[in-house]
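During the reporting period the student researcher (J.K.) took over the structure-prediction task from the postdoctoral fellow and processed the backlog of single-chain submissions. One of the processed entries is reproduced below for the supervisory committee.
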Amino acid sequence: MSAVTSHSSGFINHARFAFAKDPNVLLKEEDRGYEKNRMEQAGDRFAWHVVELPKLICEAFENPKIVTVALTALALFSVQLTFYPIITAQAIKASIIFASNYVPFWSVKMGAYLATQAAVLGFGMRALGRFSNDDLMAKWYRT
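J.K. obtained the following structure tokens:
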């Protein structure tokens, strides 16, 4: 590596490039518009539940219909809790016990494990796909 390094060298800048949702925004204007390769596309699919799902949930809460239903449910629950606190607490406790009896802990743990592994694999595949794209890397090092 030369004594003078560009901003695109070094671990932090490579990590920023690897984990960017769209690396086109990090490139110069004339270098934008590359197509994702298969490795990147597969990585995006594996990491979908970490990258895209939260955005969809946030967008759903901007929908007035969803907000109306959520606030109505909260108001109904508040009235129920106000007038019948003991019955409501017993119902919540019974629901938790029912769920814990029919959904074993190992399956929750396995689901969390698989979701985490899929996200890590997805981010790694996407980064590997970008670093394997010679044209994209040449454009990155020119910026």
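The committee noted the following: Confidence is low (pLDDT under 50) at residues 1-5.
J.K. will present the remaining backlog at the next meeting.
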